Amino acid sequence: MYTVRNVTDDLYWVGGNDHRLALFENVHPIPRGVSYNSYLLLDEKTVLFDTVDWSVCRDFIRNVESVLNGRPLDYLVINHMEPDHGGSIEEIILRYPAVQIISTEKAFLMMHQFGFTIDGLEDEVKEGDIRNFGKHTVTFVAAPMVHWPEAMVSFDVTDGVLFAADAFGSFGALDGKLFNDEVNFDRDWIDDARRYYTNIVGKYGPFVQALLKKAGTIDIKIICPLHGPVWRSDFGYILDKYDKWSRYEPEEKGVMIVYASMYGNTEYAAQALASRLCAKGMSNVYVYDVSNTHVSYLISETFRLSHIVLASVTYNLGIYPPMESYLRDMKALNLQNRTIGIIENGSWAPKSGSLMAEFLDQEMKMINVLDETMTVTSSMNELSAPDLDALADSILESMKE
User: Contact, 212 vs 243, CB < 8 A?
Assistant: First the structure.
């Protein structure tokens, strides 16, 4: 059992780590890799909770076979059918053709859509259904739109283990360290956990809130997500993060300045504002170039901080394209409850500011756009100082509210 680890005496992590994949969902950079978590329970009946992505299927099968040690696999529970978790279902069926698959009606529909041969193997469950596997009793809880419509979570009532599907997950390969208390999560993992949540699940905050309310009614001792570390302590830490993220509340007061600059003049204005804010006592300031910062990092920071400044050059009488793309991602992920300041630049027709303000007002919810828009005509000069001060003061004043 070379890479297998015990979660409890009779529950084993049998997943895999992927350092070869560059982009999660072929969109989001994962420089630290990603784990695909699967868990195998040995009771009177044997139960596998979810599978893994095809990319680590060979290691996964080896892990499952080593833990079973010749025993048959009786049940396969599929909490989430996305291919990074359901992709190896057919490999399990080929090796254990008598396995019964426990999942939701929508998940079985998706299995057929993916071309899996599951006829006669289905054991359909819905909210509140229970299955007994010997010593362990497991109940099933619907978790629709966290973050696919078929998703559920499973709760082992006997040991207090929540198999949480894509909730409470994170980018990053485990590399041997399975539990949250084996890593410095706040130092090494929280940024990847936030980026994972905000970009993958962020749109569906109300559904996450509903799941958190259900979780509050059960006695959870261990949280087993499908990506990232297993939680066996300090639940309040991660539950507080999920509560804030899913209510679109910032984690901390601070300013994120995102600039779109063609020749450096708008960048200079962004840096000038950062300097002015820090000189006035607000040093929790972060500056990003929208053209060379992947949008998944921008979205993560947007969820983290309370104030955002959008500094954009005017391009073809519109918003600079990477800035417009970032705005559309904010809308798609349902960002709310933020205060936004605007810097616009243009050599003959500065329009990006009014267009960004219009987008924020008409396309997004609960966004407070500050009145003090700073306009730069080509480049900053001595006449820009009052506008710079006014924007900085407006940001600081709004932080007192």
Answer: yes
Residue in this structure with the two tokens 């978590």, named with its chain if needed? 37
Exposure string of 30-54, with b = 16+ CB inside 10 Å and e = fewer, is beebbbbbbbbbbbebbbbbbbbbe
Residues 6+ apart with CB under 8 A from 392: 273, 276, 277, 280
Nearest to 201 by CA among 357, 348, 333: 333
Tokens of 47: 């139960």
Q: Which tokens go with 45?
A: 């009946």
Q: Count Cβ atoms within 10 A of the Cβ of residue 386 and give its class: 0-12 exposed, 13-18 middle, 19 or more buried.
A: exposed
Q: Are 77 and 163 in contact (CB under 8 A)?
A: yes
Q: Write phi, then psi, for 132 (nearest 5 degrees).
A: -110, 130
CA-closest candidate to residue 357, choices 287, 309, 297, 321: 309
3-class secondary structure for 191-249? Answer: HHHHHHHHHHHHHHHHHHHHHHHHHCCCCCCEEECCCCCEECCCHHHHHHHHHHHHCCC
Along the chain (401 residues), what's the average pLDDT of each consecutive run of 10 residues?
Answer: 92 98 97 98 98 97 97 98 96 97 97 95 97 98 94 97 96 98 97 97 95 92 98 96 97 97 96 97 97 98 98 96 97 97 93 96 96 92 88 96 73
One-character DSSP codes across 250-312: -SEEEEEEEEE-SSSHHHHHHHHHHHHHHHTT---EEEEETTTS-HHHHHHHHHHEEEEEEEE
Find the farthest-apart pair of alpha carbons in the chain and give their distance in angstroms, rounded.
79
